[in-house]
Each structure stands twice: as C-alpha cells, then as structure tokens.
Design brief:
single chain; alpha/beta; Aspartate Aminotransferase, domain 2; 2 domains; seven-stranded mixed sheet; binds 4'-deoxy-4'-aminopyridoxal-5'-phosphate
Length: 386
C-alpha cells in the first residue's frame, strides 16, 4: 500500500465496502431504495447502541459537535447541569449547556485522571441536577470514564444522563438501555466507521419525554427534534418526507458499516478493541514511554496517548509519517506538547497495530531516543498471541 496508514483518533481507516458506497451515484433522498437503507440504518443503530426498541435514533448531517448540540432539546433556561470533565471535549459540553441557558457545574479531573462514580454521587447531593454529562472517552487525554457507575448515581438522583461517545461508540462497551443513558451521541468518522459528516444519537424515552414536556421553545432551529423526529419516524416507516436534505452517500455508507459491526457482534467488537488496545499499550510500555492516563484501569481502548521521552526531536511525527503511518499530536491545552496520540478504533486489526508500533519505534530512533529495535513490537505481539 503506497498511501500512509491513518492511525489518528478520527477520521479513521474505513472499510472498502464503506468507501464503495461513498462512490456510488447519489440517489434522490425520496427514492424508495434509499428510504429502505435509511430505515435499516435507524433500526441497526438501536442494536449497536444497545438502546432498546423504544429508543429514538437520529441521523443528522453534521459533525460530532452537532450531535453534542442536540442537548439543546432537553435543556430549558435555568436547568442545572453537572458536567464531568475529563478533558477538552468535556469542556465543550459545558460551553454548550451554558450557551443554551443551563447553569453548569463542572467536576474536573486533572489531565489524565478521571472522575469516579463515588465523586459524582457526592456532588449530586449538593444540588438538584436536571442533567449529568459524561465524555465516555475524552480524545484529548485518552481517559475512559465509568459511564455505568455515573449513570446509576445520576438516575438515582433523578437526573438525565448525556454521554458523548464520539471517541467511544461502537468500540467501548456501553449498554444504553441497561445502564440508563438518556442520550448517547457520536460522529460517523470514528469507530462507527464512516467518513466525517454524520451526527448520530439515540435518545431514551425519558429524554424524549423531557423534550415533549418542555415549556420553552428549543433554542436552536436546526437541532430542534420537532423538525427531525417526524423525519426519522417517516424514514423508519418507509414513508417519503423532507426537512433538510440527508447526506445520502454517508447514510448509505453508514448502513453498510453498521451491518459490518453487527455481523461481528457487539461483545466481540468491544473485546477486539480491548485486545488491540492492550497490545498497543504493552508495546508503548516496553519502549519505556509513559502515558497520559494515570492508570491502565481508566485508559481508553480506542486510542493510546504516549508521553514523549525527554529531549525528543520535534520532527518525531514527521519521521513516523515517513515510515508510512500518520499519528496525531497532543490536544489538551495544558499538556499539548508532552504527548502524541495513536488511534485504534473501528475496523482496525493486528496488521495496523503492528505497522503503527513499528513506525513509532523507527520514529523514536530517528529522533534520538535509543531503543532496541523490535522491543515494542515483541511486547505487542505477545499480547496479540495470548
Ligand atoms: N467529542 C469528542 C470526544 C471528540 O473526540 C470530538 C472530535 N474529535 C468531538 C466531540 C467533536 O466532534 P467533531 O469534531 O466531529 O465535531
């Protein structure tokens, strides 16, 4: 393969079958065959999200931030939100809640740390919260947060639970119905495995009821479920409808990707991400590099955030690129220059992981960090061969 391998935390490498859908002639959005594909994608989302038959999926044209913006539907001015902050994207969620008139209290972890369910339970006793938001995996720190525990605490306190799964959905275990998550949102370009451009979310019956019972108008026109719910219902029931033109090729690609994910099975998808992540992290550790998450127990399985060794040539990522792999630099403003990021989600496998680790080893040596060739690869292979 002459083109480089894209191993950043989104966009990711997409399957050939997904890319074929992107290249097909665009159908009319009211074509019967397209309507059937849209219907299937909505139904399949419930199975990938494990959200139950009475949940409501939405497929919108937009990026992950638009999916986050959908919280506007369950926020009324003066509502109180508790934002669990594990990095850059949690802070964006706090900004969105405030933008739409909520008072947002932020429970922050230091970069690399997480917030425990016990800490959230204590905070929930301090005030009446309408809403608790969690970033399942914060892409700026590689921290995985305990959604199951936090959702249980929030539900017990009568709050709705919103989870940003942009760097987690269809990779990290999340059982929306069983865990009591009210909105689980993501974007197409990560583990869902479709090029950027779709905002995806599934809302619980409680979330839909909060929206139905609101006494003030939704403060965004494009995000308002009043515009989109009839469209989602119509597509699912295979009726013609229109509010805004759907991103037809992306929806076709989504339908293919969801089928591929479901053919593997959600338990196997979650297990594969854990296995590959353990292999990458073992390789990084064998190279004697630290990682941003302060404990393996709360490290994400969708990306790895190795810390740079001291005095490394800043050309490191360029050397990795010259060895055929594109990785990402740091993102969290406080520690931005101290680490890099390797994405490993979606249709990744053993070949990608070993290629990436090999390029990291070469990049490190070319950047003045003396490690024994193959030391990280051997550690990763040992995990993969277990
Ligand atoms: N939340 C998380 C956790 C993300 O990783 C990202 C994007 N990297 C976003 C939200 C925003 O998504 P987008 O860039 O597609 O708007």
């Amino acid at each position: 393969m002459s083109r480089p391998l894209l191993m950043i935390p989104g966009p990711i490498e997409f399957t050939d079958e997904v890319m074929v859908e992107m290249s097909r002639p665009s159908p009319s959005h009211v074509d019967a065959a397209f309507i059937a594909v849209f219907s299937q994608a909505l139904k399949d989302m419930r199975h990938v999200w494990l959200s139950g038959g009475d949940s409501q999926p939405f497929i919108l044209a937009g990026s992950g931030t638009l999916a986050m913006d959908s919280v506007v539907n369950i926020i009324e001015p003066g509502d109180r939100a508790l934002v669990i902050d594990t990095g850059y994207f949690s802070q964006r969620m706090a900004a969105i809640c405030r933008h739409y008139g909520a008072e947002a209290d932020v429970l922050s972890a230091a970069p690399g740390d997480t917030v425990s369910a016990a800490q959230v339970a204590v905070q929930l006793q301090q005030a009446d919260y309408d809403l608790v938001t969690v970033t399942h995996v914060d892409t700026s720190t590689g921290v995985l947060t305990d959604v199951q525990g936090i959702a249980a605490a929030a539900k017990a306190a009568g709050a709705l639970v919103v989870v940003d799964g942009v760097c987690a959905t269809a990779a990290e275990e999340l059982r929306q119905q069983d865990w009591g998550v009210d909105i689980y949102l993501t974007a197409s370009q990560k583990a869902v495995g479709v090029p950027p451009g779709l905002a995806l979310l599934v809302a619980s019956p409680d979330a839909m009821n909060k929206w139905r019972q609101r006494s003030t108008p939704v403060a965004s026109y494009y995000s308002d479920w009043a515009n989109w719910l009839p469209i989602m219902e119509a597509y699912e029931e295979k009726r013609v409808s229109y509010f805004g033109t759907p991103a037809v090729n992306l929806v076709m690609a989504l339908a293919v990707s969801l089928r591929q994910i479901l053919a593997e099975g959600m338990d196997e998808v979650f297990a594969r991400h854990r296995r590959l992540s353990d292999a990458v992290k073992a390789g990084i550790q064998a190279m004697d590099l630290g990682q941003v998450p302060t404990s393996h127990a709360h490290a994400a399985h969708t990306l790895t955030c190795p810390r740079y060794p001291a005095n490394l040539d800043p050309a490191f990522l360029g050397h990795v690129r010259a060895n055929g792999v594109i990785l990402a630099g740091g993102l969290h403003p406080v520690i931005k220059s101290e680490y890099f990021r390797i994405g490993h989600m979606g249709a990744v496998g053993r070949r990608d992981i070993l290629t990436a680790l090999g390029a990291v080893e070469s990049g490190l040596r070319l950047s003045g960090y003396a490690i024994e060739p193959g030391i990280g690869l051997a550690a990763a292979q040992a995990v993969l061969d277990e």
